[in-house]
Amino acid sequence: MKVIKQSGDIVHFDREKLRNSLQLSGAKSEKIDDILNIIEREIYDGMPTRKIYKMAFQLLKKTSKVHAARYNLKAAVQALGPAGFFFEKYIALLFRTEDFATKTNVILNGKCVSHEIDVMVKKAGAIAMVECKFHSTNDIKSDVKIPMYILSRYNDLRGKTHSVFSQDDTISKCWVITNNRFTSEAIQFGTCSNLKMVSWDFPAKECLKYKIEENGLYPVTCLTTLTQYEKEKLLIREVLLASDLVDNSELLSDIGINHNRIKNIIREASDLCDYVGNNCSIFKD
Hints:
The chain is of the alpha/beta class. Among the domains are: 2-63, no CATH class; 85-213, Trna Endonuclease, Chain: A, domain 1 (3-Layer(aba) Sandwich), CATH 3.40.1350.10. The chain has helices at residues 15-23, 29-42, 49-63, 65-71, 73-78, 85-97, 145-157, 184-192, 208-215, 228-236, 250-253, 259-275; strands at 2-4, 10-12, 47-48, 101-109, 114-123, 126-133, 141-142, 173-178, 181-182, 196-198.
């Protein structure tokens, strides 16, 4: 059976690949088998993979909103758009969980020109610039031109003093982070140039997906009990994390959600945090 990927490529349907993605949601083996059997009865030659994904998501949602939310994680991060502004804020939060000081959208003067930097981070006296490459669909990879361009900006900024966290800061590191993937050539060039390259699944124990799961940084966009319109209203208010809602029901009432729905949303957010044993008040004073 052939299916069509978002890129337009035609490939064989891979039952085991789908099983693996469902296992990552935390669903039990018997539930996964049920879902796979249903999908295999419904699948047809030339079916878009996005429809298969949507079907699996809806079937998971019927039995466990938490598993559905985790299965939806990559799409939820892609929903931090459309231009990536909220993705940059989200990446700053990720660094904060690892004890970095952060600033977003900083304009610095280089040797030749000025540059707007997505995120600046500081830890143990070392200051780094972080460039975020956001994509709203799965089919785009960041190629070698991305680290080449960012390296040129980094070279223009380092060696100078800047006013970021203090009046006399120097930049000694550079990160390139994408919510999708890099091409192999981009990784090779970035690594050779001493850039810290992080994508959705690279490097294995430091990739974006691993960091999100490890720290419980589930974005509000992964919650199945919220509508797309409600998610957008929360993002505009810079409510980025599901954990932000757990003890702050007023954030939901402020955007017009009624009491009964608020209880369901809070329950899903709490269950999601409890799933990883995460302290949902991690960003509170």
